[in-house]
Each structure stands twice: as structure tokens, then as C-alpha cells.
Amino acid sequence: MTKKELRKTYKTRRQELTEHQIEDYSIAIANQLLTLPIWDYSFYHIFLSIEEQKEVNTDYILNILSGKDKNIVISKSDFKTNTLTHFLLTDNTIIKKNNYNIPEPIDGIEISTNKIDVVFIPLLAFDKQGNRVGYGKGFYDGFLGNCNPETIKIGLSFFEAVDEINDVFDRDIGLDYCVIPFEIFSFK
């Protein structure tokens, strides 16, 4: 399937999930993450869930990161340039939803992309080769392209891998892992 077809299919599938399913699956994904060899790093980038899009609830992962005393990095989107600016999440960080219902920091301590060790990535679908489909604006391709080559890229999804995404481009950045509620896919 193409990215466009997968986007449409998986947006529909996500909208069919109940709140209860989203919570159960999100907890299961957080528990799966605990089994990965990723916890010896310092800076972890995570997305704040867009409830209206029925994304994986990252509150559980945030709790794990806080409990492990990790530096948590979140982003602010610039829709004019389709880029992300990254900020350290602290007790003083003020979060506000933008026009697209994305929870974002108002401002804060900016963190350089080259400091980020692990990135948790929102996605709509992924394939068995580690390619991913997001919302199609290229925010994460640009961001991941600026990360260090050793930065660990972890997709989070409610659904199984598809066999193949037909229209993958050279500039698309693949995943190292994708975690679904009851399985971990490794592409390393």
C-alpha cells in the first residue's frame, strides 16, 4: 500500500478504538518499552499525545522517564517551515495546545538535536522493514535527519506491521524499533 492509502486506513482504524482500548494498549506499550536496552541514556525525546487523533497515550512513558530521572525533551512545531524546536520538560514548563490540538511547550530551555539519545515517534503505520507513515508533513523526517546516527528511533503503534510501504523515499528515516501492545519489532 502507499503512504496515502495507509494514512487513510490507519486514521480510520484509530478512530474506531475506544478510550478503554487506548488506555490498555498504551499501558501495554509502556510496559514493553521497559524490556528494551534503552535505559542507560540521558536525553529522551517524546511526543505529547494528541487526544483528538487517538494517539498512543505517552503519559505512562513520561512517568517511567521521570521515575528513572531522565532528561525529557518535547517539541514545538513550526507549521511555516515544518520543523520542530526541542525543549527540556521541567516542572516549570507550560504546555498549551496549538491550532492542531498538539500539546506543546510555550517556551523553555532549548535542547540541541545532537544531545538527544532516544526518540519515541508517533506514527500511523509501519512496515516489516522499519519504514513508517506519519501524518505526511515531514516534521519527523527533518528532525530525525538532524539527529546523531546512533540516536535510537522507536515508533509507537497500536497496530501490527504491514508487509511493505510501496512509496518509501531515500530521505525517509526508518526505525530501530517499533513497539505495539504485545510485541516489539527490531530493525537494527
TrEMBL record:
Belongs to the 5-formyltetrahydrofolate cyclo-ligase family. This is 5-formyltetrahydrofolate cyclo-ligase. InterPro entries: FTHF_cligase, FTHF_cligase-like_sf, NagB/RpiA_transferase-like. The keyword Transmembrane does not apply. NCBIfam families: MTHFS_bact. The keyword Nucleotide-binding applies. ATP binds at residues 3-7, 132-140. Its cofactor is Mg(2+). Keywords: ATP-binding, Ligase, Magnesium, Metal-binding, Nucleotide-binding. Substrate binds at residues 50, 55. One of its GO terms (molecular function) is 5-formyltetrahydrofolate cyclo-ligase activity. It catalyses: (6S)-5-formyl-5,6,7,8-tetrahydrofolate + ATP = (6R)-5,10-methenyltetrahydrofolate + ADP + phosphate. One of its GO terms (biological process) is folic acid-containing compound biosynthetic process. It is an enzyme of class 6 (ligase). It comes from Hyunsoonleella pacifica. Its EC number is 6.3.3.2. Pfam families: 5-FTHF_cyc-lig.
